[in-house]
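Reminder: ligand-aware prediction takes two inputs, not one.
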Amino acid sequence: MKILVIGREGQVGWELARVLAPLGPLTCLGRPELDLREPDRIRRTLAEARPDVVVNAAAYTAVDRAEQEPELAHQVNALAPAVLAEAARDCEAAFIHFSTDYVFDGAQSRPYREDDDPNPLSVYGRTKLEGEQRIHRVGGASLILRTSWVFSLRRPCFVTQVLHWARTQDRLRIAQDQVGSPTWARLLAEATGMLLVRLGPNPAQALSGLSGIYHLAASNSASRLEWARQILRLDPNAHQQRLTAEAIEPAYSRNFPTPATRPAFSALDSSRFASAFGLRLPSWEEGLRLAMDPDS
Ligand SMILES: NC(=O)c1ccc[n+]([C@@H]2O[C@H](COP(=O)([O-])OP(=O)(O)OC[C@H]3O[C@@H](n4cnc5c(N)ncnc54)[C@H](OP(=O)(O)O)[C@@H]3O)[C@@H](O)[C@H]2O)c1
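Here is what comes back for the chain with NAP:
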């Protein structure tokens, strides 16, 4: 199976570059080789590579900055995925794309399912939703995997930020009123790899009747506060911390105003993915424990 991954340097793309390597000839492109703002280059790249599957892990993910750069976010998150889906369809390749829990408004209190109505609160969420809709209109063999609160210890993210604060501050306040499904980038990449194994040598054909949106995130949910506390408990260098997990003070999102509004509750129910493909991600606690193991 010939695979093309886009977004090589991102949290998920970096893991995909390793996990997918045993599956067949693999090309991983970063922004310097393929800028998603250039539709002609996207078409040319796919036509020349003629992959069996295209996995797009690139996106404009700066949620707050997107409020100031809506056009750029729109190009990368809404327009480019449709060009990729079209170019993948034209070379009879399957297209796998990642989307986000931020397509929801967070008014619900049970984990979101694929048939729940989206209502994004931010430019980022709106552009990602439009990307999903445009891929759907292309009509090829495509999977849109919505995930949530992705982290990886090799790029700045909530986990690395909390560790930094715990080492540099004597007081820490974290929001208890934002709930999601913290998902380790490596497990997401591994589930994608196993999914491709299950689809077999002709993934586009195997996807017949299965194309569409699936939620794929860690099971169970956590508030930012619970997540932060567990990060400190699992920190292999806990002796460097200036405060304990229990010393983190509960706060509210309104205490930390940000340019973009985030949903208060965006945990995802991944059971549709589990029943379609026989794969699931472990709980967020288990994913975090694995990620924070110093030998990972
Ligand atoms: N992070 C989260 O919490 C989260 C939550 C839910 C869903 N998701 C979705 O999951 C997917 C993977 O996210 P991630 O966390 O791995 O993202 P990430 O670490 O921010 O990586 C995104 C990648 O996209 C690349 N990129 C940005 N603009 C580009 C452009 N114009 N042309 C080509 N590449 C470009 C970036 O390149 P540079 O390295 O050059 O900047 C970066 O490598 C995305 O679809 C995201 O929307 C993420």
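The chain is about 40% helix and 15% strand. The pocket of NAP is lined by residues 7, 9-13, 31, 35-37, 57-61, 76, 98, 100-101, 128, 147-150, 155, 185 (CB under 6 Å). We will return to this case in the review session.
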